[in-house]
């Protein structure tokens, strides 16, 4: 069971529809669970990114950064979605090749009918979600502010480590 208050990452893997590749990825994660390197399970769902339907996974952000980010399963992935532990916090899209982070607004639950009319949505446990933002853009352009009331700036992947 995933902990609800921790930040999550929603992602897909390369060749997710290839049963052998998906089985190897799931076996890798199962091995991490059995070795005690991760303490929570991964959720599997369905997502739509730029109009393309695909299977997706959701794990805690710390697990993604430590065990999944640098695996061969993400080599050709364009982006992942980071979702805050609170629905009042903005989610962001991370472009994997450049490390650029773009605001995606807040995630909100919608109906299945609403989801099918959109270009991007996610479904976990028969609950559909959309990102509510006018467009994906850098945090600083969107006007979000961070600690000490300073404007949040885009962070590169190297700064996150």
Description:
- The chain is globular and about 40 Å long.
- The longest helix has 16 residues, at 19-34.
- The protein has an 8-stranded antiparallel β-barrel with strand order 1-3-2-7-8-6-5-4.
- It has one domain.
- It contains 5 helices and 9 strands; from the N terminus they run E-H-E-E-H-E-E-E-H-E-E-E-H-H.
- A hairpin with a 2-residue loop joins strand 7 and strand 8.
- By secondary structure, it is an alpha+beta fold.
- It has helices at residues 19-34, 61-68, 112-116, 139-142, 157-160, and strands at 8-11, 43-49, 52-60, 79-83, 91-95, 101-110, 121-124, 127-132, 137-138.
- Helices cover 23% and strands 32% of the residues.
Q: Concise description?
A:
With 161 residues, the chain is α+β, with helices and mostly antiparallel strands. Helices cover 23% and strands 32% of the residues.
Fraction of residues in helix: 10-25%
Beta-strand residue percentage: 25-35%
Mean pLDDT: 81
What is the domain total for the residues? 1
β-strand number: 9
Task: Give the end-to-end Cα distance, rounded to a whole number of Å.
Answer: 27 Å
Query: Which structural class fits the helix and strand makeup?
Result: alpha+beta
**Largest sheet: spatial strand order:** 1-3-2-7-8-6-5-4
Mind telling me the C-alpha Rg? Answer: 16 Å
Helix and strand sequence: EHEEHEEEHEEEHH
What is the count of DSSP helices, taking H or I runs of 4+ residues? 5
**General form:** globular
Q: What are the key terms here?
A:
single chain; 161 residues; alpha+beta; 8-stranded antiparallel beta barrel; 5 helices
